[in-house]
Design brief:
Layout: E1 5-13, H1 20-29, E2 34-36, E3 49-51, H2 76-79, H3 84-100, E4 112-117, H4 122-134, H5 144-148, H6 152-161, E5 167-170, H7 176-189, E6 195-202, H8 206-209, E7 243-251, H9 252-257, E8 264-273, H10 286-299, E9 306-310, H11 317-330, E10 339-341, H12 344-347, H13 354-368, E11 400-407, E12 411-418
Parallel strand pairs: 4-5, 4-6, 9-10, 9-11
Antiparallel strand pairs: 1-7, 1-8, 2-3, 6-7, 8-12, 11-12
C-alpha cells in the first residue's frame, strides 16, 4: 500500500487572521479581511479595496524600513534575501512547524522536501531594474535576483532550514500552490520523501495587483463588505490580497509514530488544462470538470461522496460562471448536492497563494467539523440554480472535501481531503 499523505501543521498570514484560531473564527463568523486602500497614491484608480495584512508594512524596497507584528521574529541575515512575501512565508512556516511539533533540526536529513509557489516580487524587481538602468549597469543589489524572481521562496527557505530533500518552485499563476501541494502528495505517495513543506505566498503591492485592472478582472466596488461576492449576480471582479500559508505534509505512519495531530488526509488530486485561452476560463468549465473528475478517480470516490466544495470562484463574471457549469457537470448531473462556497469572499484572491490557503481552510473545516458559508451572497446568479450555497457557516461535518483552483492558461487543479481514518 502506498504511503498516505496527511496534514500535520498549518501556518497563516492572511487578511482574515495570522494564526489558526483567528482564521477559524473568521471562517465561522464570515468575517472578511478587506479594508479601503489607495494604490500608487492615486485616488483616480477604480480599485479601492484589498485584503490587507495587518501589522505588516513594506513602504520601500529597503528591508531596513520593513515592519511586521512583534510576535514574529525574522533573522536579519535572512531578511536581506527576502521579498515582502518572503517575510510572510517565513512567519507562516514558523507557525506551521510549531503547530506540527517539529524542530528545524528534524528537517535536514534528506527525508523532508520543500515545494513553494509565488510569482516573485514585481515590487522589488521594478526597483532593482530601475537602479540598473539609472546607473547604466554600474550598480546593483547583490541579493536583487534571489529576492525578487519567482523562485525566491524556495531559494531562501531551503537554505535557511538546510533542506536536503526535494526542493522546487511552481509557477502556474493562480493554480501554483495547488500544483505544489499535489506534487508534494506524490512525493510522499511514491516513497520519495517522508515529509513535505508546502508554502504559497504573494506580495500585497500595487505592482502585484493593479495589472489585473487592465484585464478588467478587479472589482471597482468601494464597499469592503460587498466588493468580493463570488457567484452573486452583481459581482464585478476580484479583490486582491497577499500573505502566505504553509502546510506540513507527512507520511501518515510517520505522523502517528511521533504522535502528531492530523488535521486531514489527502486522498487524491487531479489536474487538467482547458486548452482554450491564455487568460480566460473555458466558457463551459471543461478543464475544471476534467480536473475534478480526475481528483475523484484518484481518491477512488464518487461525486456523491463529496460533502463540501471549496470553489475557486474569485468573483469575476466569466470565471464564476465557468466553475458553476463545471460543478453542474460533475455533481448536479450525477444527482449529487455538496455544499459549495468560495472563501475568497472573505480573504480576496491570493493569486499563487490561493490553492494552499484554501486547502488549509479545508483542513480546518474537516478537523473542526464545519462548512464555511458563501459570504456576501445576496442575489444568486441564475447559472448557480441547483447548487447548494449556504449563506451562513454550518455547524456540520463536511465529510469528504474537494478544493478547486484555476490559473492562467487554463490550469486547473483539485484536491480531495477527508477526516483521519
Amino acid at each position: 500500500m502506498s504511503p498516505l499523505p496527511v496534514i500535520t501543521g498549518l501556518g497563516f498570514i492572511t487578511s482574515i487572521g495570522q494564526d489558526r484560531a483567528t482564521v477559524q473564527r473568521s471562517l465561522g463568523e464570515l468575517r472578511h479581511g478587506f479594508e479601503p486602500i489607495e494604490f500608487f497614491n492615486n485616488p483616480a484608480l477604480p480599485v479601492k479595496v484589498a485584503g490587507t495584512l495587518k501589522g505588516f508594512s513594506f513602504p520601500t524596497p529597503s528591508w531596513r524600513d520593513w515592519r511586521w507584528p512583534d510576535k514574529f521574529s525574522v533573522d536579519r541575515e535572512l531578511l536581506r534575501g527576502l521579498a515582502p512575501h518572503g517575510v510572510y512565508a517565513f512567519c507562516a512556516l514558523q507557525q506551521a512547524l510549531a503547530d506540527a511539533g517539529l524542530d528545524p533540526a528534524e528537517l535536514t536529513d534528506g527525508t523532508t522536501g520543500l515545494f513553494c509557489a509565488s510569482a516573485g516580487s514585481p515590487f522589488l524587481l521594478h526597483s532593482f531594474l530601475n537602479q540598473m538602468h539609472e546607473t547604466r549597469g554600474e550598480r546593483g543589489n547583490p541579493m536583487g535576483i534571489v529576492s525578487s524572481i519567482a523562485g525566491t521562496l524556495n531559494f531562501n527557505l531551503a537554505a535557511h532550514y538546510k533542506i536536503a530533500g526535494a526542493v522546487c518552485g511552481f509557477v502556474s499563476a493562480c493554480a501554483s500552490s495547488s500544483h505544489a501541494l499535489g506534487y508534494a502528495m506524490d512525493e510522499i505517495r511514491l516513497g520519495r520523501q517522508q515529509r513535505m513543506l508546502v508554502v504559497g505566498a504573494e506580495d500585497l503591492s500595487a505592482e502585484s495587483i493593479i495589472s489585473f485592472s487592465s484585464l478588467r478582472a478587479l472589482s471597482s466596488n468601494s464597499d469592503p463588505a460587498t466588493a468580493s461576492r463570488p457567484f452573486d449576480r452583481q459581482r464585478d471582479g476580484f479583490v486582491g490580497t497577499g500573505g502566505s500559508v504553509a502546510l506540513i505534509i507527512e507520511d501518515a505512519d510517520l505522523a502517528r509514530r511521533r504522535g502528531a495531530r492530523i488535521y486531514a488526509e489527502l486522498i487524491g488530486w487531479g489536474q487538467a488544462s482547458d486548452g482554450h485561452s491564455v487568460a480566460v476560463s473555458h466558457p463551459e468549465g471543461a478543464g475544471l470538470r476534467r480536473a475534478m473528475q480526475r481528483a475523484l478517480a484518484d481518491a477512488q470516490v464518487n461525486a456523491s461522496d463529496i460533502g463540501y466544495v471549496n470553489a475557486h470562484a474569485t468573483s469575476t463574471v466569466a470565471g464564476d460562471r465557468s466553475e458553476a457549469l463545471a460543478l453542474h457537470a460533475v455533481f448536479t448531473a450525477a444527482g449529487a448536492e455538496p455544499r459549495v462556497s468560495s472563501t475568497k469572499a472573505l480573504t480576496g484572491h491570493g493569486l499563487s497563494l490561493a490553492g494552499a490557503m484554501e486547502a488549509a481552510f479545508c483542513a480546518l473545516a474537516v478537523d473542526g467539523g464545519f462548512i464555511p458559508g458563501a459570504a456576501h451572497l445576496t442575489e444568486l446568479d441564475p447559472i448557480c440554480d441547483g447548487l447548494d450555497l449556504p449563506r451562513t457557516t454550518l455547524d456540520e461535518a463536511p465529510g469528504l472535501v474537494l478544493n478547486n483552483s484555476s490559473g492562467f492558461g487554463g490550469s486547473n487543479v483539485c484536491h480531495v481531503l477527508r477526516r483521519p481514518t
